[in-house]
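so my prof wants the structure for this chain in the tokens format not the other one, which i didnt know existed until like an hour ago. anyway here's the sequence
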Amino acid sequence: MVARSLPQSDLTSLYRALTYAGAIPFAVGTFCLASDIRSIPFLGDTVDVLAAYGLIIASFLSGAHWGLHLHQTGGWSMFLALMSNVSAIGLWIGFLGLTPASFLLLLSFVFFLLLGIEQRLVTDGLITQRYFRTRAAVTCAVVFLLIVSGLMV
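here's what i got, hopefully its the right format
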């Protein structure tokens, strides 16, 4: 069997669709909190589900930066490696030790921090402008939802 790669237009559509789809659990969590649904069947406490999902997504994005670090040299490589670890471990500690409202605010801050790193990545030509615009739109929506959720907890 020969593996075929997708055409660039299909890959672009795929990452955009997956990026936007990744915001759906944040919207559902916020809707549940606004509707006073404090527990999601089979998943657990709504705010815990929202916080755990946010932790996973932020760690995933940090891991993407780690992957980019493997293909860079010098200070940029070290910065990406350190920031990916600091953000993932810092969020994990925050998840375990902060109140839910405080953790959702920390998560919002880290999402913006990761977006700031990606602004630099696009400036340096390491990611595309189109990818960055998608990430910026979704990050802004997610941070809004996290702040609203944090205020309802």
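also thought this was worth mentioning. The chain is about 80% helix and 5% strand.
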